[in-house]
Amino acid sequence: MPFKTILHDLVEATAGATAAILIDWEGEAVELYSPAANDFDIKILGAHQNIIFNRIREIRQKVPSQTICNTVITTDRQHLILGAIGDDYTLVTTLERNALVGRALISVQRAIKLLEKEIC
């Protein structure tokens, strides 16, 4: 299944989701889907969130028994779910501030499994 289809299905099937972007290890957008946002803005957001997520993962590597799978960042305007896809990729999903994060996490995990099948 193509990356674009996975991201499209994630955003369209998740209440309150506004965008999804697959980022590589260098912070570059591999693919993205956002029905309303500017692609350039989403790429910049994805690159910045990838830096944050990689830093969190580096810190947690000091505790070898635990691995970071995903992180939720909540701002005054939105939620961001950052999910690890192997060691080299990150899925960034943006949600409206009033979205149900727990439900969105289930959808993000499903998308991550599909993306892992395509990448690995």
Written description of the protein model:
With 120 residues, this protein is α+β, with helices and mostly antiparallel strands. The protein has a single domain (3-119), classed as Dynein light chain 2a, cytoplasmic (Beta-Lactamase, 2-Layer Sandwich). It has 3 helices and 5 strands; from the N terminus they run H-E-E-H-E-E-E-H. The protein has helices spanning 3-13, 39-60, 101-119; strands spanning 17-23, 29-33, 70-74, 78-85, 89-96. The chain has a 5-stranded antiparallel beta sheet with strand order 2-1-5-4-3, sandwiched between helices. Strand 3 and strand 4 (78-85) form a beta hairpin. Helix 1 packs antiparallel against helix 3 (101-119). The longest helix has 22 residues, at 39-60. The chain is globular and about 40 Å long.
Specify Rg, calculated over alpha carbons. 13 Å
Structural class: alpha+beta
Oligomer designation: single chain
Low-confidence stretches: none
CATH topology: Beta-Lactamase
Alpha-carbon distance between the two ends: 13 Å
Order of helices and strands: HEEHEEEH
How do the strands line up in the largest sheet?
2-1-5-4-3
| Helix content estimate | 40-55%
Give the mean pLDDT.
89
- CATH domain class: Alpha Beta
* Superfamily (CATH H level) name: Dynein light chain 2a, cytoplasmic
Count of helical regions: 3
Shape category: globular
Describe the main β-sheet briefly. Answer: 5 strands, antiparallel
Strand content: 25-35%
